[in-house]
From TrEMBL:
Functional description taken from the UniProt entry: Zinc phosphodiesterase, which displays some tRNA 3'-processing endonuclease activity. Probably involved in tRNA maturation, by removing a 3'-trailer from precursor tRNA.
Family according to the record: Belongs to the RNase Z family.
Gene3D superfamilies: Ribonuclease Z/Hydroxyacylglutathione hydrolase-like
UniProt: Zn(2+) 1 binding residues: 56, 58, 134, 201
Cofactor: how bound: Binds 2 Zn(2+) ions.
HAMAP family (UniProt xref): RNase_Z_BN (MF_01818)
Presence of keyword ATP-binding: no
Protein name: Ribonuclease Z
CDD domains the record matches: RNaseZ_ZiPD-like_MBL-fold
Length: 298
């Protein structure tokens, strides 16, 4: 959690910024002003970043782009870095990317998002986007790991398998033991891939629920408390109670609340509102906090 404020940073909260470590990927979401320094404070190397994902082009979600891009170039990050952002903001992104003079050696690959659906597929899984309901074009993101299989020790024992042959079975899908062919499906059971969702700046809409469906970890804005629900609706934001409702209805495992308005100084109230409707784990984000993705089921 590199920053957890909303429009105005506070003494304790920087503008937005979130880094998801996902196998070999490092997805940097919504780097607001000051993100480069927050990365340093968090002990994050620029080489950890493989993708930059912007939900929209309000300043608290994108003003950190110039510093981050220049840092990636300064550190001579060798791998390509992919940039996903709403297509309507292409001119904004290019202005941010080239905000000042620097020696640009970065292979930054712009991939504007203009519709719902998958935007990147790889060994890490599928990264998808869906349009949200805000005052400018805004997309939420969802990352889904491929389904796999969990080895069951009792079935290994039944088939007389142990040691290095188990690794070969996982790699090749089947092995021959004493003239018998044992397949991976014979000693394992299906395991659902992990799911992550990132939702910022929106009113409740179908896309919010679609993105959050079955998420192991949901990072979601909760700019307002219910006492200011009218303001939330006017400015197209969520309350903590609404975020809790989404988590409850979507079967989320860990709910992370963030993007707090500067008008509030007691984060406990956000936790209480969400926990009143959601019985799972609720985390009220703080700057530089690390939140683990829950372990795979099975």
């Amino acid at each position: 959690m590199l920053g957890t404020a909303s429009q105005v940073p506070t003494r304790r909260r920087n503008h937005n910024g979130y880094l998801l470590r996902w196998d070999g990927e490092g997805l940097l979401f919504d780097p607001g002003e000051g993100t480069q320094r927050q990365l340093t404070l968090a002990g994050v190397s620029a080489t950890d970043i493989t993708r930059i994902c912007l939900t929209h082009f309000h300043g608290d979600h994108c003003l950190g782009v110039p510093g981050v891009v220049q840092r990636l170039s300064l550190d001579r990050v060798a791998r390509p870095v992919h940039a996903h952002y709403p297509a309507s903001g292409t001119d904004h992104f290019r202005a941010l990317r080239h905000a000042c003079a620097f020696h640009d050696v970065l292979d930054l690959r712009e991939e504007p998002v203009d519709r719902d659906g998958p935007i990147a597929v790889g060994a890490f899984g599928t990264l998808s986007a869906r349009a949200l309901d805000h005052r400018v074009q805004t997309f939420g993101y969802r990352l889904v790991e491929p389904d796999g299989r969990s080895i069951r020790p009792d079935l290994l024992d039944r088939h007389g398998l142990s040691g290095p042959i188990v690794g070969r079975l996982q790699r090749d899908g089947e092995v021959v033991v004493d003239g018998r062919t044992v397949r991976l499906a014979d000693v394992s059971e299906p395991r659902r891939g992990q799911r992550f969702a990132f939702i910022m700046d929106t009113r409740l809409c179908d896309a919010v629920f679609a993105l959050a469906d079955g998420a192991d970890l949901l990072v979601i804005e909760s700019t307002f408390l219910s006492e200011d629900q009218a303001l939330a609706a006017e400015y197209r934001h969520l309350t903590a109670a609404q975020a809790g409702r989404v988590a409850a209805e979507c079967g989320v495992r860990t709910l992370v609340l963030t993007h707090f308005s500067q008008r509030y100084d007691d984060p406990v109230r956000f936790h209480a509102e969400a926990a009143a409707v959601f019985s799972g784990d609720v985390v009220v984000a703080e700057d530089l906090m690390r939140v683990p993705v829950p372990k795979r089921r099975g």
